[in-house]
Every structure is written in structure tokens, then in C-alpha cells.
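User: two proteins, same treatment. go.

Assistant:
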Amino acid sequence: MDRMAVTGGAGFIGSNLAEWLTAQGNDVVIIDDFSSGKEENLEDWSRAAGRRLEVVRANILETGRLRQVLHSVRFVFHLAAIPSVQSSISDPIATNSANIGGTLSVLVASRDAGVKRVVVASSCAVYGDEPGLPKAEEMPGSALSPYALSKQVCEQYCRLFHRLYGLETVSLRFFNVFGPRQDPRSDYAAVIPRFVLRVLSGLPPIIYGDGEQTRDFIHVRDVIRACWIAATHPEAPGEVFNVAQGKETSLNRLVEILSRLLDRRIAPKHDPARPGEIRRSVADISRARRQLQFSPAVSLEEGLRMNLDWYRTRIEATHDTA
């Protein structure tokens, strides 16, 4: 089987992807500095992976070390980043270094090590307040934060390395990914884990603004499938693809779904809207369907039901060890 690398492999999406890759019989090296990734994300499956899994504690800005690690690697899944709009507004230099500098380092090391293809995690944030829905890949985008701008630059670097050096690159614009191992207590926590943890803890979920802002939620299982197809499909190199459900859901609607699943009335707390956040977001996924034959398989409600079970287990485990 092929040898593959996952940067940020101890994070939410990265650990789910690395687990799936090893389960398919592939040799996987995780590259993570554990600044936000967690060893506990590897604990429940790494033993089963055995010798198929190697974990390298390294910063992706260490280009020379990356060259050594990526020797004999066929596919690189580059997920390491500072994935927060608010953090990028507070500290744009750190975001620029980790996201742009880190991606450039991964691309250079991959080129020099003879990697066949690099799949890079981009973001729906690149669209910003670009008018028109749904968001299609050909839209120019209008960044509202340093995070969004960093992802635009990373996409451009991917295209450039494909054209200049022949390194196969694919950029995947993830929309709002959710699923197990998504830390609700992290500074980078997304809306679903924050909502779920507060509701299960008996607290009201906090909505910034009126709650009519919309997101396009996609389960991590579908994201893993998209990553694999992007790494192996002959029409993927040099391209950018939206990875989403293609369905628009407001935060108020999200609360309603949670209320039904939990069979309780949930009254959210509304705080002032935050700067840099997008008002409406929904993807056009026709390019991924047409070129990659990719369609999402896990609905929002099904994914939330699985999420609730996972968070219940986590909360019970926390209480048992308290």
C-alpha cells in the first residue's frame, strides 16, 4: 500500500482522516506540533493501526525536516493551520506564518521529496461577502479576515506549484465541518460543538447576532471521502473544489433540530454579532459532483445524532474521572 502523510493529523479532521487511511491498510505518518492537536485524538485507534502509523512531532515551518519525513510519501494531506477567523483578527502575524508560511513549506518539501500529490485544506471563508448564492468556485471572493486571505494565498501557491514544478495539488474549500473529536473548549471551536456541549451541560447555546446567519454543514465522514477522492482522481490536480452539503441552515434552525433530537426546548442566548463573520453561506457543489463524482452522504440531522452520542460519552467520562 502507499505511504501517506497528514499534517495536523492530531487535530479534529486530521485524526479522523489518518484513522480511516490506516484502516484501509495504508502506512500513514502524522506530522503535528501538538500546539492545537491532541494526543487523545489518537488514543482510541492508534494501537489498532500499529506499525502502519508513525507520529512525528514537528512544526510544518521546519522545511528541512519535512523533506526527510516526506521521503517515500506518495500523498500529502495538508490540514495543519490556525483555523480561526477571530484568532486571525487578534493576531494576523501568527495566522500568516502558520497558514501561508506553513503551506509554502509543505509544498516545497513535497516537491523536493518527490511527493505525487498534495491535497490542501482551504475554506469557504475565501468567499467572504461576495454577493450571490450559492458560492461557486469561479467567484473571485472578498476576504473579511486575515484567515480568509491566508487561504486565498494558499490556493494560489497550490496552483503555482502545479504549473511551475508539476507537483499535483488540489485545494478543497471545506465549509462547516462537524463530527467526533471536534473540541468545543478550543479557542477555534466551531458552532456545532459549542452548541452541543452547552446544551448537554444544561446551558443555553450562545448565538452571536440574530441567529439568521446561515452555514453549510458537512460531516467529517464526507470530508474524509472528499480528501481521498481528491488524492486519487485523475481530474483533480490543479483544481479547487467546494466540499459541503450544498444546503443552507440558519443557526436558529440548528437550535430547532437540536431541540427535536434532544426532546427539550432550547432557548439560546443572543450576544452581539462579531466582526469578520459571514452572513450567509451555502455551496454550489456541482463541480465536485461533475468532475470527482463526489456527493455528501451524511445528512445534518444524522450527523448531529451521531455527534450527540459521542458528546454524551465524553461528558460521562469526564464526570467519572472527576
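Protein 2:
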Amino acid sequence: MPTITIHHNANIFQWPTPNAIFQPRSLVLGSFNPHNPNRENVDYYYGRPTNHFWKSVAQIRGLPDNTFLGIGTLPIKLSIMHKQFCCLDIIDSIKLTCDDGNVLNHFIQTKIFSGFNDSIIFRNQTQHLGTIIYINRIYNNSILNTLNTSPTIDSIIHTMGTKRLWGKPGVWNWRNPSPADLNNFMTPIKNMNNIKFINLSFSPSGYAINNGSTPLQSLNTWMQKYLHL
């Protein structure tokens, strides 16, 4: 049965780790940034021009929206993160398995490398062109190490949204049902001593902004508060 592994861009390009950020106070957790070997990739988390994360950072600081966008802007991203926040994604890679290799390749090109929506990768299986594709997530174990060794991180936020469970405390993920492996991975992260886990979340994805599930002003207010901007 054909299997294809897709790695995170951070591992391919050796993105700066939280240790490279001077005294960050918040850790921002995202989902997954797939490496596409057939085109230019972003240089850091939330780097796609359709994502509003760095646009919001710029707006909060009174800078042009494109200040932190594009290859070559990593140094200024890092400079504004010092004493503020650092970023990691919870998934290191995904393994996709399917009986039909052609269907698997088409799925990757159209659902992972183009129009990527991270809700797909939190399913254990999905159907594409009438064929089942099995999804296996390999999680990022460096997150716990970062939290256990950082002397300054005191809070954790995530950017995967609380859309369907708005206002319910203690709920980290709005997807229903959440995969058991995801809940098992997140439990020790949520229960870190002396580190507060912020359940409220706004997704900065272009999809969330454009369909109104993330109001732009709410996103900016939330980021300004929890990223200490």
C-alpha cells in the first residue's frame, strides 16, 4: 500500500527554535506547515501571504501589513519576537497511506500543497475520489522540552480556533470528535506547572478571516494581549 510522508518546513529548513528567541513569554502553537518540494516555501510559521498572523502583528505595531511577509523578513520577525513570544507547531510530519498511488498523489497536490485546510490532517482517514486515505500524525515532542527548560515562558496559546465550543473553558480543540492521539499529546502540555494554557483561540488563517469566523479586530485584540505586543 503506497505511503507518502510529508515533513514540516521547520525541519527541512531548520527554522529558528524557541531557544533562539530572547526571553519569550508566550509559546504560540499552530498545527502543521507542509513542505512542498516543488515550489518556494515560507521561511517561518504563519508565513503564507494568505495568513493574517504577521499582518496583525504589523497592524498592532502600526507598520505596513507586508512588513513581516516574504522571504528575507525572518530577521525582523525574530527581532519583534524577543521578550514577547515564540512559535512551534504540534505536528512534525504526516504519513498518508492509500491503496491507489495516483489518488494519493492527487490528494496531496490538491488538499495539502494547494488550498491546505488543517482540519483534514486531524482526521484518521478521509475519502478522496472515492478512495480512503489513512492519516497518521507524528507529533512534535520538542514542545514539552521547550516548556520544561524555558525560564521565561509563562503562557501557551494556540491558533487552531475555538469556533464550535466558544466560551467553554477547558476545551482546547473545537474539532468534534478530536482524535485520541491529539488529546493524549496535548494533555501534558495543558497541565504544565506554572504555565497557563489559554483556551480561547482565534485562527489567523485567510479562510477564517474571509468567512467571518475570525473577526479581524478580535484577532488583533487577542494577539496584542497574549503576545504582549
